[in-house]
Amino acid sequence: MPCRARWAGSRLERSGALMRPLTLLRQAGRSIAKLTIAAAAAIPLASQSGVFTDALTKCLISATSERDKADMVRWTYGVLSVHPSLAGLPRPSAPHRDEFDRRMGRLVERLLTDQCPTETTEALRYEGGQSLRQAFQALGQFSTHSLLDDPAVRSTATDFIRFMNRDKFDQMDRP
Questions:
Q1: Are 76 and 36 in contact (CB under 8 A)?
Q2: Can you list the alpha helix ranges (DSSP code H) found in the chain?
Q3: 3 domain residue, yes or no
Q4: How buried is residue 75: exposed, middle or buried, by Cβ count under 10 Å (0-12/13-18/19+)?
Q5: Residue 97 and residue 100: Cα distance in Å, rounded?
Q6: Mean pLDDT by 10 residues, the chain (175 residues)
Q7: Which end of the chain is more exposed for a tag (fewer CB within 10 A), N or C?
Q8: For residue 137, which of 42, 51, 57, 24 has the smallest C-alpha distance?
Q9: Residues 147 and 135: beta-carbon distance below 8 Å
């Protein structure tokens, strides 16, 4: 288990806080991808988090740079690109996806073990694995929102309107 060896001897492992780190990180990664899609579609997601999860979330957000946010979105793009409904559309190459994975792995490792180790340990200890999932959902939403706030992205996001029949809307009863 080469991945497990990377965690051996870490402060988090010695504290006993990370019982299943790779499983929790995989779940968090899936949550980031799901949340990025939901945020892009403007679907609000409700979550109830505890004080330790909130502290972890704040730490993750404050420790995340613009480049980190872009790396998260690239990783999400690489993950989503393999979905069967996107068959026939351009996909990132395998080396690009490997690069996205490498950057995301380093980002998550840095955030949890270097920049937010106390918050991570406390959230896992007192609120369990769900705390990682919720914190990364919030981070994904925050990262996506900041990218969607770009003027070029906002402009492009409304391009579909030109293909709508406005007469149909004009014929509708309005309150």
A1: yes
A2: 2-7, 11-15, 21-40, 51-62, 66-80, 94-109, 117-127, 130-148, 151-157, 166-170
A3: no
A4: buried
A5: 5
A6: 42 46 52 50 52 96 94 91 93 95 96 96 94 92 84 88 87 76
A7: C
A8: 57
A9: no
For the question of whether the overall pTM of this predicted structure is more than 0.90, the answer is: no
CA distance 39 to 51: 23
What values do phi and psi take at 150, rounded to 5? -65, 135
pLDDT of residue 24: 54
Per the structure, the complete domain to which residue 133 belongs is given by: 29-37+49-82+90-150
Structure tokens at 140: 């994904």
Number of domains in the chain: 1
Two structure tokens written together for 86: 């996107």
Domain annotation covers residue 162 = no
Q: Determine how many CB atoms are found less than 10 A away from the CB of residue 168.
A: 8
